[in-house]
Amino acid sequence: MARMMWITIATMGATGCVTQECNLMYAPDMVSVDLHADAWADGAWRVEIDGAGCDVTLPEGADLVCDAVQEQPSLTLDGGGLGTLSLWSYAPPTVELVVLHDGVEVLREELTPEYAEDEPNGEGCGERRSATVDVDVPAA
Predict the structure, then answer these.
(1) Strands 116-118 and 128-136: what pairing?
(2) Which of 12, 32, 58, 85 keeps 20 to 30 A from 111, CA to CA?
(3) Looking at residue 20, what is its pLDDT?
């Protein structure tokens, strides 16, 4: 009888053990800049965050090309104009935004993103910092 009780207690202890499970979703740090303008002039545009960026020709959004760098920039277009420039695996305290139209600088601004932190792969599975900053771009 004493032997039976020990086996029952040992089994209960083993089944009470819980392991942590994490998703494997790609969820790196990220900084994004939402670009707003009253109107977007036709021509060649370049948008950069800390020197990494994308080139596009408006009005059709032709020839959209982003730099092949570690930060993996991506640019979305919105309603015939520029939308959001995002840099993946990147979340510094400040960033420098540069916007050029036909090779002429129309905006240079240092931004201080307010990062939100979350754990998209589950609690205890690693934190991610992300922020989006809204910027008004002057007419070119």
Answers:
(1) antiparallel
(2) 58
(3) 66
User: Nearest to residue 101, comparing CAs of 45, 53, 48?
Assistant: 45
Residue 137: name the closest of 63, 52, 51, 41 by CA. 41
Residue 10 Cα to chain centre, angstroms: 48
**How many whole angstroms separate alpha carbon 51 and alpha carbon 98?**
8
The pTM of this model reads 0.79
pLDDT tens, residue by residue, 107-135: 999 999 999 998 888 888 888 999 999 99
Q: Are 140 and 43 in contact (CB under 8 A)?
A: yes
Cβ atoms of 44 and 59 within 8 Å: the answer is no
Provide CB contacts within 8 A for 18, sequence distance 6+.
Answer: none
- Phi, psi angle pair for 11, to nearest 5°: -65, -40
Tokens of 68: 């092949």
| Token pair belonging to 136 | 């008004």
**How many degrees, rounded to 5, is the angle at CA 94 between CA 88 and CA 95?**
60
| Neighbouring-strand partners of residue 62 | 57
